[in-house]
């Protein structure tokens, strides 16, 4: 390298990035202080110092805790990648030949298995230091399995994560859509309303109770209407029943997308807008380095936005 002086001189250092990531995960200065082994005032001062260096506010204080601003989200997303890349570089320098780190992964929702296996195959090429295996037997209760040490990492949608014992990070969102036969009375509607869902049978798979609660809250708010659910274990069966006009299939865009090109099924959104389901990655602190590598890789390889419009 001819001119080292031409390289950028960042204002932030590794300690700054770790403070911001800890606050993003913990959402309070007190919990972040515990994770970082610092005092709460020290964490508050460190955050102010980072914001001063950047000339931007990174978090808003809300009743739900610290919520990243747009600038904060930008920094959080990039910080994880930088730390993972630096850690990988250090590891290659210290020990060029190392055994793969083995982690056990499960998904709270079966819909992730429509894309996760192929994603993991690609990750083996880009992350040879990680050996990720699926623990499908813990799909129904991933958080208790994490706490018991039976798995290391979990992709979750609605389960609550005890932050005193586990780490978690926002990953991405998929869209839940409503699929009906092209001959269904609702097929001509531009959008659907909660009243439409009350009047027709909803076709779903077996989902965790926490996800059912999330769905009702997002669609109906505090109301708890009596809905007609038909729980069908097989995705293909859900599609076939919807195709026959016997109900409204409630599906992830990942599942619905491949079935919408033939003209016999149509996907609808609510009039209130897309029903976005947030996904998070949760892990045991003992596998933090491996989990962050997996997180950074999933952020760039996981599918999203499969439905246009």
Report on this model:
- Residues 12-69 form the HTH lysR-type domain.
- Keywords: DNA-binding, Transcription, Transcription regulation.
- Belongs to the LysR transcriptional regulatory family.
- InterPro entries: LysR_HTH_N, LysR_subst-bd, WH-like_DNA-bd_sf, WH_DNA-bd_sf.
- Mean pLDDT is 84; it is low at 305-309.
- The chain has 309 residues and is α/β, with parallel strands linked by helices.
- Helix 8 links the parallel strand 7 and strand 8 (229-231).
- The chain contains eleven helices and eleven strands.
- It has three domains: 14-93, Orthogonal Bundle (Arc Repressor Mutant, subunit A), CATH 1.10.10.10; 98-172 and 278-300, D-Maltodextrin-Binding Protein, domain 2, CATH 3.40.190; 175-276, D-Maltodextrin-Binding Protein, domain 2, CATH 3.40.190.10.
- Strands 3, 4, 5, 6, 7, 8, 9, 10 and 11 form a nine-stranded mixed β-sheet that branches. A two-stranded antiparallel ribbon has the order 1-2.
- 40% of the residues lie in helices and 21% in strands.
- It has helices spanning 14-26, 29-36, 40-54, 70-94, 116-126, 142-147, 194-199, 209-220, 235-243, 253-256, 288-301; strands at residues 59-62, 65-68, 101-107, 130-134, 153-156, 166-181, 202-204, 229-231, 248-252, 265-268, 275-284.
